[in-house]
Amino acid sequence: MCLVGLMVRFIVTKAREDALDKILAWLDRGKTAGALSKQKKRPTAEVNQDNFTERAENDYREEKFKGVWKDATNEYHANITGTKKGKRGFGAVSVASKYNKHLLSPNDRKIRAQTHIDSVARGEFGVSPKKHRDGAHY
């Protein structure tokens, strides 16, 4: 969680605790705390719209990463099998940094050189990257 989120949570918790300290002694503190912490339920349409926007952005970034990954693995494979093998500036680190710098946005997932090397060594160049069980790419 980000620092701002933690600060907001701390301020809200502090305000709730202060309010609970000021209640009358005959009120049940646990029930009152529960009543204070209930939030208004959001309409389904609003939740769906937020989820749609988030999914659309994630899908866009995922497709962008896949395209860059395919191009980068093809270029690295061509470099190591062609006449550029062993020449400075044509290795996995150079190819990965070139694609990360020029084609991916600062917030996009980056291509790692070692993952690049492993993928091409397995013969998986020009195809979508493999995924973990949780859906994230290697």
Characterization of this structure:
The protein is 62% helix and 0% strand. The mean pLDDT is 77. It has 138 residues and is an all-alpha fold. Helix 3 (44-81) crosses helix 5 (113-121) and helix 4 (92-102) crosses helix 5 (113-121).
Short description:
It contains five helices and no strands.
Keywords summarizing the entry:
138 residues; 62% helix
The succession of helices and strands, N to C, reads HHHHH
Please tell me what the overall shape is.
Answer: elongated
Unreliable stretches (pLDDT < 50, length at least 5) are none
Largest beta-sheet characterization: none
- Nearest-integer average pLDDT: 77
**Number of DSSP strands?**
0
Total count of helical runs of at least 4 residues: 5
Structural class: mainly alpha
Query: Which bin fits the share of residues in helices?
Result: 55-70%
Cα-to-Cα separation, first versus last residue: 23 Å
The Cα radius of gyration reads 25 Å
Strand portion, in percent? under 5%
The oligomeric state is: single chain
What is the topological layout?
Layout: H1 3-21, H2 29-37, H3 44-81, H4 92-102, H5 113-121
Helix pairs in contact: 3-4, 3-5, 4-5
